[in-house]
Write a structure and sequence with these properties.
252 residues, single chain, TIM Barrel, eight-stranded parallel β-sheet, two-stranded antiparallel sheet
């Protein structure tokens, strides 16, 4: 069962463009039952963004932020995350088709982790489906990340839709990464004549009872809805997801 629900703010990105709209957006999602927010960039200074979130009852649980800054200026990156109120500093993924590129990225990510871990921070990695493409060495990017990233200083933001889209089995990957998933992205998959598409939780074909049972056993800390695209108003979509989860999987 889910205790508290979060939203990846990329889902409502069109109204996260200035302080007034950010505040109103936080108020709207808080009324829907969302208590956590994960950033996808900040349109105002970090200090202001974090202050508005706190004032509106939203805890920032993690980020998709600037990897270059984390790598070259870790002290500045940590100050930014302190201002937001989170110690999970992450990126939204990267695209690589060559094993050497992946090795370089793993080395850089572990460098970031080594610099920030002594201060209580952790580096997080969010997957898409390209990480499940087999490269010329017969391995996937995801295989290499799981093996190469330091499990003490890094964790995964596992995305249910993109695992399925990549040909993976969601529960298998949750179990495989047990203890290494701080944030689970809840994202459903529908299907029409044009192929798979992102849809509201409960409106697609993923088996949420099994996924969330596996997630609880794996020690997932934050359950975060994300919807990249919507059929209409994004706030309508994220409300449908919150309503479905609250009715079926959240603690009363």
């Amino acid at each position: 069962m889910i205790d508290r629900l979060g939203l990846q703010l990329f889902s409502i990105r069109n109204t996260m463009n200035n302080a007034e709209n950010i505040r109103e957006s936080f108020r709207r999602i808080r009324e829907m039952g969302y208590e956590h927010g994960q950033t996808a960039g900040c349109a105002v200074p970090y200090e202001e963004f974090g202050r508005i979130a706190r004032e509106e009852g939203i805890e920032i649980c993690g980020t998709h932020d600037d990897f270059g800054l984390m790598l070259r200026h870790p002290d500045e990156a940590m100050r930014n995350h302190e201002a937001l109120g989170t110690h999970l500093m992450g990126i939204g993924g990267f695209h690589a088709t060559d094993p050497d590129e992946v090795e370089r990225f793993i080395e850089q990510a572990n460098t970031v982790a080594a610099n920030i871990a002594p201060h209580g921070f952790k580096f997080t990695y969010h997957n898409h489906s390209n990480e499940f493409i087999r490269m010329k060495n017969g391995r996937t990017v995801m295989d290499m990340l799981v093996e190469g990233l330091d499990p003490k200083g890094t964790s995964f933001v596992l995305d249910t839709y993109w695992v399925q889209h990549g040909g993976g089995e969601v529960r298998h990957w949750i179990e495989k990464l047990s203890g290494r998933i701080d944030i689970l992205h809840l994202k459903d998959m529908g299907r029409d004549e044009n192929g798979p598409y992102i849809t509201e939780i409960g409106n697609g074909n993923l088996w949420w009872e099994g996924i969330l049972d596996a997630a609880e056993k794996a020690g997932v800390k934050y359950y975060v809805v994300e919807q990249d695209t919507w059929p209409g108003d994004p706030f309508d979509s994220v409300k449908k997801s919150a309503d479905y989860l609250r009715a079926n999987f959240m603690k009363k």
